[in-house]
Amino acid sequence: MNNLENADLRVFVAAARRSSFAAAAEELGMSPAYVSKRIGILEESLGVRLFQRSTRRVVITEDGERIYAHAQAILEGIDNLFDEVSERRREPRGRVRISSSFGFGRNVAAPAMAQLVGTYPGLQIRFEVFDRLVDIVAEGFDLDIRVGDEIAPTLIARRLMSNHRILCAAPAYLARHGTPKSLQELASHNCLAIKERDHPFGVWRLHGRNGDETVKVSGSLSTNHGEIALRWATDGLGIVLRSLWDVQPSMDEGKLVRILPDYTQEANVWAVYPQRLAGSAKIRVCVEFLQACLAGLPAPGAPVPRAALDDPADGRGGDQHDRQHGRP
Q: Containing domain of residue 196, as a range?
């Protein structure tokens, strides 16, 4: 099989999985017109019609379904071959498509990506950030760097860093509105709600001395971007629930003060990937590199002391979640 056919099979598999030429084009970094052209060339080479096309969507044909199964097996075999060669040479190669959330992705994961390719120049990292939970299987991602412990049991998860969210506000806000003494008092405060990927919007579930508690919060400002909420908080506009790695620099500078210190929300950082990549050498290299990188530097440029994190030694592997799902 030549390189052109290999590339065309990858285009076909992406289009079949996403049921859309446009979605496949976005995933592969191509134009929809180019995807359509390559699918047409593959159909001509195979002598079958792979998709029924309409103006709104594409539907895979019966012949396409059979070829899709074969194409997946062929591409998996090729990937495994290159993985085995890379592992023996200790030089991982190839493209890795990685996703993460806005705040953690930009501030922490992105610098780690730069270090990763500097250490392993044979890797080609495509890094994308979202304000929603990514379906890594359906959307064709190899790895998701995820903040939060809600992980489907069908996925493999390796903990990269221990972390929790805490409640903070600016001294100016507390001077004007007072400091809440109980979780229930948050309902009468201006809370800066963030649309997190792992929690319902406007509902804060926290763990305290009496176990888990939930409070419904509201306020004049809300957003889907943590950095915006953090800026509002430092400007004295409300109370924010943010990860320790994110607020520690502002706390050190006196811009934010922790409130209700008995309450936290666990939000560990995980590397999540599909079962089909369980034996991938390049995924293993990426995960191990990120574990080592994030264990000591949770916030590049403003490192949080290791003692400030919940048992950061766990960030190097073997924890309950890994064992539960038979993690490597």
A: 164-266
CA nearest neighbour of 316 among 266, 276, 271? 271
Q: How confident is the model at residue 130 (pLDDT cuts 50, 70, 90)?
A: confident
Q: In the predicted model, what is the mean pLDDT of residues 261-268? A: 93
HEC sequence for the chain: CCHHHHHHHHHHHHHHHHCCHHHHHHHHCCCHHHHHHHHHHHHHHHCCCCEEECCCCEEECHHHHHHHHHHHHHHHHHHHHHHHHHHHHCCCCEEEEEEEEHHHHHHHHHHHHHHHHHHCCCEEEEEEEECCCCCCCCCCCCEEEEECCCCCCCEEEEEEECCEEEEEECHHHHHHHCCCCCHHHHHHCCECEECCCCCCCCEEEEEECCEEEEEECCCCCEECCHHHHHHHHHCCCCEEEEEHHHHHHHHHCCCCEECCCCCEEECCEEEEEEHHHCCCHHHHHHHHHHHHHHHHCCCCCCCCCHHHCCCHHHHHCCCHHHHHCCCC
Q: What is the pLDDT of residue 241?
A: 96
Do residue 72 and residue 209 come from a single domain? no
| Residues 179 and 250 both lie in one domain | yes
User: Are residues 65 and 11 part of one domain?
Assistant: yes
Q: Any idea of the CA torsion for 120, 124, 128, 132, to the nearest 10 degrees?
A: -80
**Cβ neighbours, 10 Å, residue 110:** 15
Report the number of distinct structural domains present in the chain.
3
Q: Rounded to whole angstroms, how far apart are CA atoms 242 and 313?
A: 22
173 in the same domain as 261: yes
Note the pLDDT tens digit of each residue in 273-314: 998 888 888 898 999 999 998 876 443 333 333 333 333 333
Whether residue 111 has pLDDT greater than 90: yes
**Is 11 found in the same domain as 82?**
yes
Using a cut of 0.85, tell me whether the model's pTM lies above it.
Answer: no
